[in-house]
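Fold this complex.
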Amino acid sequence: MDKILEVKDLHVTFSTYGGTVKAVRGVNFYLNKGETLAIVGESGCGKSVTSNAIMRLIPEPPGKISNGSIIFKNKELTTLSEKEMRSIRGVDISMIFQDPMTALNPTLTIGTQLMEGLQQHQQITGDQAKSKAIEMMNLVGIPNPAERLKQYPHQFSGGMRQRIVIAMALICKPELLIADEPTTALDVTIQAQILELFNEIQEVTGVSIILITHDLGVVAKIADRIAVMYAGKIIEVGTKREIFYQTQHPYTKGLLHSVPRLDLQGEKLTPIDGTPPDLFSPPQGCPFTARCPLAMEVCDKVYPVTTERSDSHKVDCWMQDDRAKQLLATSAEK
Amino acid sequence: MDDKILEVLHLKKHFTVGKGQVLQAVNDVTFNVKRGETFGLVGESGCGKSTIGRTILGLYDKTDGDVLYDGRNVHDLNEKDRFQFYRRMQMIFQDPYASLNPRSTVKEVISEPMEIHNIYRDKKEQLNRVYQLLEEVGLNRDHANRYPHEFSGGQRQRIGIARALALEPDFIIADEPISALDVSVQAQVVNLLKALQIQKGLTFLFIAHDLSMVKQISDRIGVMYLGHLVELTESTTLYDDPLHPYTKALLSAIPIPDPDIEEARERIILKGELPSPINPPSGCVFRTRCPMAMEICSKTKPAWQEVTQDHYVACHLYDETVENKEPVKSLIRN
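Structure:
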């Protein structure tokens, strides 16, 4: 399969008065053409910073991509100038933000905002842009598009605004769409509509999607592959089935056990004790050590090597090491 | 066993919103909460669930109907009795960042209610009680002199819980207590609330939009839509045998974190958006989005009836006096 995006050893830091925050610490992943990769993790794990880095939207200073490369269709993005990057944003790579209430300009009509990107990037007449905008509004399921083009954001509901944001992101036919918590601010019945829309759009346009979310239910529905992030690192990555049914990392297991399931009766929730580490001075070893029920001495000292369980399934955990398995066996005997 | 601690009878709360318009936030809602149980109130944003919570506590004046706490009408209490009433009913708020005064130490936050109610004459005794409360909610006494900003979201919510427990209430209204928290921390807080309930024999009114978490914690659940209670039953029955078309759609919209189940599920996608509570649809408020809408639905408000034991629903489909139950498409507006 064609890789459309490859991120290698990405590091992003932020300088603050309190010191340097290492928000993303050596992230590796790739995205195939036409697939949906979900990046899952809790607040502060670096998932949004990773996606902003791909768009080169990290404010510099205080932020900085301090190391690593981001290759999009054989083009290195980290070294591009702002001007070159502008010709990629919105055209080749688009982004959808979490809050549809703030992602739109309240003083401009929907039509102006929809056509703005188009007219920025393409030689196109006003009429052509307008018919394009109407076409996109049809695609995302907004009734009476010609009428509604003239309306302002406050005249739309949350779900409709998110549809408009999606239409804006797709209007230049990008090959990669980054959606940062696109349904978090929406009600569940509206979320179901929007997730359905993502499926339809991917079928029609073949766009590749990076979905940033904390909701494992959403992931189970629309992702092909899943990367689990913790404290600035991807600690486990695999196909949807590998992550859900052959879960390896204790953190991934913890996440899966801490969410209640509608279809199960009387299950007991097992929370993960404690809180994530401070990224001013991240631990030298595995960042999950302090919360991990299986932590060993080595975990605190050395970051685990990546174990490849299959072509797609990779885990950063010392429990994967043969020596740890022996240790488990001997302690079980005792 | 059927000891009702709280009875809400035909409660109405309307807000005047200018231009002579009236927002019907809560319309004719009737339910009761039994001593020692957790009653869950679910619905999407704007359905009136928080308004009910606040009206029960007397933070809002009612428009019509009654709220009886231990047989006494909450809204008819004189000032002195109301003051005493607040010792028995307390609230936990949604946003742990906004609900704690940033300029007060944790000790001050938790001891404020005790001081207002003049519970301890001896400062030392009061401080010991603060320490005891901190330990009960899983923090420790060293935290007493710190300020809210030094805590994570989950810890702040624990402080909010400690404050609610300070007056040893019997009844706690928890308004979306976990929705601002990360998934792994949500489970911590839910388990804490459950443990405290068993320890102290508390009664909870748990208001939330996340049906899977509500089902996890509640004994009985009421489902709300646009200011109306549409269904009420035991939480397991609600999942196994939902009656109201809205409940069915709501259940089917919640993604389950298990790919095999998720892919096999049949989903009811609701068309359209929530109508405005300023100008709600005639008859049944759900009929504009209801896939089963019948002729009678636009004319008559469905009655609140007990279909099987302890299973209440407001829907013409379960009304035996309705003869023509043929769905009528035109009642659904897009």
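Residues 4-237 of chain B form a domain with the Rossmann fold fold (CATH 3.40.50.300).
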